[in-house]
Amino acid sequence: MITNRRQFLKNAGASAAAISLTTINGCNSNPRANADGVHYGMVIDLQKCIGCKTCAVACKAENHTPPGVNYMVVLEEEIGTYPNVERRFIPRPCMQCQQPSCTQVCPTKATYHRPDGVIVIDYDKCIGCRYCMAACPYGARSFDFGHNYHSPCAGGRVLAGRSFCRP
User: Fold this and answer.
1) pLDDT at position 105, please?
2) Residues 6+ apart with CB under 8 A from 165
3) Helix, strand, coil % in the chain, rounded to nearest 5
4) What does 61-105 look like in DSSP terms, one character per residue?
5) Are 95 and 102 in contact (CB under 8 A)?
6) Where are the domains of the chain?
7) How large is the average pLDDT for residues 76-90?
8) For the chain, where are the alpha helices, taking DSSP H only?
9) Chain centre to alpha carbon of residue 76
10) Nearby residues of 84 by Cβ (< 8 Å), 6 or more positions away
11) Is-contact 139 125, C-beta < 8 A?
């Protein structure tokens, strides 16, 4: 069977769309409560967000992440054309998916789903493969390559404020 360029691109596009839908379906957003009836969530009123990024600073302080590792980023978007231009700010935290793709691909199960619905990372189990970053359809995962902190026993390798040194 001879395929022309147009048909090849159509098939490639359809395949890419099918693969991306498969990844996004791994992050099913249908909330289901745990045995206690609790499922945590976060509501962000985009009408009130002014782009101050205080949420990102608070997240960084709470999680003790090193420079370059951000669990919360604020995306900025310009809407309209001159002279009617507006800016929109969209905070993008981890979406705390009910069936997260990041936990499904982690070979050491360092990223896991707690019974109360929160996605957490056990840094003592993490091997730094970054499969979770590739699997997250929201791009909400980050990794520190050790350029910001130096540890003599780990060759400078630190992830989210924790050294790989053992006491």
Assistant:
1) 93
2) 151, 153, 154
3) 25, 20, 55
4) HHHTPPTT--S-EEEEEEEEETTEEEEEEEEE-----SB-HHHHH
5) no
6) 9-163
7) 92
8) 5-25, 54-63, 101-105, 131-135
9) 17
10) none
11) no
- Distance of alpha carbon 16 from alpha carbon 58, whole angstroms: 37
Torsion of CA 103, 59, 139, 76, to 10 degrees: 160
Q: Which of 42, 46, 22, 164 minimizes the C-alpha distance to 105?
A: 22
Q: What is the DSSP letter of 49?
A: -
What is the CATH number assigned to the segment(s) 9-163?
3.30.70
Chain mean position to CA 161: 17
**Distance in angstroms (rounded) separating the CA atoms of residues 116 and 142:** 23
91 preceded by a cis bond (ω within 30 of 0): no
- pLDDT tens for 99-139 read 889 999 999 999 998 887 888 888 788 888 999 999 998 88
**Other Cβ atoms closer than 10 A to 145:** 13
d(CA 146, CA 157): 4
Tokens 């090849």 sit at which residue? 8
Q: What is the pLDDT of residues 10-63, one digit of tens each?
A: 776 665 555 554 444 556 555 555 566 777 777 889 889 999 999 999 988 887
What confidence score (pLDDT) does residue 154 get? 44
